[in-house]
Design brief:
Helix content is about 40%, strand content about 15%. With about 100 residues, it is α/β, with parallel strands linked by helices. It has a three-stranded parallel β-sheet.
């Protein structure tokens, strides 16, 4: 049911936050940390869940860019550079993808 979070959902989000924190720390530790800011791509059909993820990620100590895509087809197009997202300089590949496994389309 959209907008509702179960205990399982909350546990999954806490696990994802832990993984995201590890990714951000790894990126921070790398010497080659150039001007590129890591992109976190959230593919989630429920806007409330995406907002929850974004707020939780903002609690991390690290710089990143967050993009939310709510449609599976649009996410595939974005990842493969089809349509508007064909320019790799404007749409860099994500450092981390958070995927809703039950997303329609």
């Amino acid at each position: 049911m959209p907008g509702s979070c179960s205990v399982c959902d909350q546990s999954v989000y806490l696990l994802l936050l832990s993984l995201c924190d590890d990714v951000m720390q790894t990126k921070k530790d790398e010497k080659e940390m150039s001007a590129a800011i890591p992109l976190i791509l959230c593919i989630e059909d429920d806007p409330a869940h995406a907002l929850l993820i974004k707020h939780a990620l903002n609690e991390l100590d690290g710089e990143f860019s967050f993009t939310h895509i709510s449609d599976g087809r649009a996410a595939i197009d974005s990842l493969f550079g089809v349509g508007e997202s064909g320019d790799c300089t404007s749409y860099p590949p994500p450092a981390l993808i958070l995927l809703d496994l039950n997303i329609p389309k």
